[in-house]
Amino acid sequence: MIGIITRLFAREAAVSQAGPGDARALAALHASSFHRGWSEDEFERLLSDRHVVAHRATTGTALAGFILSRIVQDEAEILSIAVASARRGRGLARQLLDINLRRLAALGARSVFLEVEEGNISARRLYRRAGFQEVGRRETYYAPERGAAALVLRRDLP
After folding, report:
1. Number of independent structural domains in the chain
2. What is the span of the domain harbouring residue 57?
3. CB atoms < 10 A from the CB of 90, how many?
4. Is 149 exposed, middle or buried (0-12, 13-18, 19+ CB in 10 A)?
5. Do the domain assignments include residue 77?
6. 127 is catalytic
7. Is 10 inside any structural domain?
8. How would you list the strands of the sheet with 111-117, edge to edge?
9. Among the options 40, 115, 118, 134, which is catalytic?
């Protein structure tokens, strides 16, 4: 019961643009969210790239989530999205995705692609609800020892 009350009164996350100074926090969240986390250096390089669009969500000073995408001409690819385990299930990933898609459209992207592990049901649900459709499949792309396929998804932007 106390957990429910705590969640009800939890502070809303503030979303803003992420930059190279966020590399350490994003790397830590990525490492806790995926089988192979990206390093701080990898994030620093991505966040310094003028083609990368990055947003972060914070509650107070704590990172609650992030999304990174890359745009080249009129196509974009979502590189990664992660939400802290304590903040999952509250619509934060959808909020980050919506903001990122709007920014990509404003920059001229007409279509967005991403890859998602076939077994990641919550992410697949998020993307389906956001209008993404499956356009391809990469067998054993994630964790070849487990045989986890990647689904290639696409959404056109207005």
Report:
1. 1
2. 2-112
3. 16
4. middle
5. yes
6. yes
7. yes
8. 14-17, 52-59, 62-72, 75-83, 111-117, 148-156, 133-142
9. 115
Does some domain include residue 72?
yes
Per-residue pLDDT reduced to its tens digit, 16-52:
999 999 999 999 999 999 888 999 999 999 999 999 9
Q: What is the predicted pLDDT for the residue at 144?
A: 64
Residue 100's CATH number: 3.40.630.30
Which residue shows structure tokens 């020892």?
Answer: 145
Separation between Cα atoms, residue 11 and residue 58, nearest integer Å? 10
Contact between 50 and 41 (Cβ < 8 Å): no
Residue 115: active-site member: yes
Neighbours of 80 (CB within 10 A): 19
Residue with tokens 């083609």: 51
Model-level pTM?
0.88
pLDDT band per the 50, 70, 90 thresholds, residue 155: very high
Nearest to 131 by CA among 104, 107, 158, 106: 158
Indicate whether 99 belongs to any domain.
yes
Between 6 and 117, name the one with better pLDDT: 117
Query: Higher-confidence residue: 45 or 10?
Result: 45
- Within 13 A of 46's CA, how many CA atoms are on the CB side? 24
